[in-house]
Amino acid sequence: MARLTAISGLGRKSAAIFLIEMSGRRVLFDLGDGLEPGDRPDLTGIGRVDAVVLSHAHEDHAGALDRLDEVGDPPVLATARTLGFLPERLRAGRARVLPERGRVDLMGLDLTLGRAGHAPGGVWLHVATPAGGLLYTGDICPEAPRLPVDPLPEAATLVLDASYGDREGRLPTRSLPWPGRPRRARDCAVRRRGAAPTWWRPWPGPGCALPPMP
Ligand SMILES: [Zn+2]
What is the distance between the alpha carbons of residues 27 and 60, in angstroms, rounded to a whole number? Predict the structure, then answer.
């Protein structure tokens, strides 16, 4: 059984921190900080984790790395380009390099990564689970001309970052994959910031909308 806990990042633009627990492992996807002075996430309920995996290096996804001691001083895994954006003092002895595309064994967890089109070195993260997989997009932008997005894998649960969405749009509770791209995601969608991406297409049926692929 796998469990996903949103430590921070739902409902408004703030620190992104998601805890995945499975097969005896506890892993954080991102360890961000708030974007306003004094807006720091509450880490007290997390406990020790085995690793922190970063989607990219922006403040709201990696800004709380100075507080690693509060979650057990775990290693930090990220792509080489993402690690290159982090201050040297945060990387010393803790950094592990992940590929920008591909599948890796993360302490026994089956992790797949692909480019997310938002920041150099930025990736989406998919972890295989007994329930059909969890996909965490981080900030994702299929419209950036020089930053490609790799096709998103099928997943039963989708955590979609809507930072760059249309603030007037409403994200439907459920919708279908983008036409012609039948990558289904059942039972999704954890909404992070209350805004639907411009490429999100509402659909009345079950499943979840995913962005168009290049
Ligand atoms: Zn970002």
Answer: 18
